[in-house]
Amino acid sequence: MTRHVLLNNIDHQDTRVIHYFSPEFGDNLHSALVFPTEFTELQKEYPILLRKDDPQASYQAIALLGFAAAENLYLSNQHATGWDARYIPASLEKGPFLIGFQRSMAMQDEKPDPVIHIDLDHPKVSTTQGQQLFLSQGGHSPYLEHIAARLDAIHQGAHLAPVFYKALEQLELIEPVAIEFTLCSNEKIRLTGNYCINEQRLASLPADALVKLRQSGFLPLIYAMVFSMANIRHLIERKNTSLRQKSPE
């Protein structure tokens, strides 16, 4: 069930949100939808891959969090937030919040403005624990300001993503990638259905194409995707550490 309402400092003065990540809150996901506006931060922690649901669908970017269903290797009760990374994908960190749109009564012909909604039935919404949303004077708390920035990254990224991915396709920079390795338990893992940047093609792009990518702001995003692939090795290390901790002495 969901119960989305427009967030306001009168009805929700006492509403709090638990800024903690764990399986009980549904955070045990093996991947998270991510947006180009996050790539420069994401590439420091996660592999960034592209996926599409079917051949006719558009590409979407994901941050890989685990290698099996319901496996998020970044969840850790040893950390204050329950998340062991310096940056949390916005689609997960936003928790019960989402973007809505509202027109001013005086400006009906104008484009609607984005506003913050909250799902009051979300398991992280509380009146007794968690982060305060509004200050006693009615202004946004630092936590809500942070969430507003994450929602803006999603909003801006959702508009940028199709343009960016189309540019990658036109330059033939996307290629399928199979991720294969063997765990310390001797279990073999093979992930398919993902796409990454074709580095050889990127290196051979003509100068004018590189200039256009740089001018559009896309070149740093492309390199963020390339550099992020090194995090697959770190993710494998997390998986092996988890297996060793679970195995009997």
From TrEMBL:
Pfam families the UniProt entry points to = SapC
Q: Which domain of life is it from?
A: Bacteria
Under which name does UniProt file this protein? Peptide ABC transporter permease
Q: What species is this protein from?
A: Rheinheimera mesophila
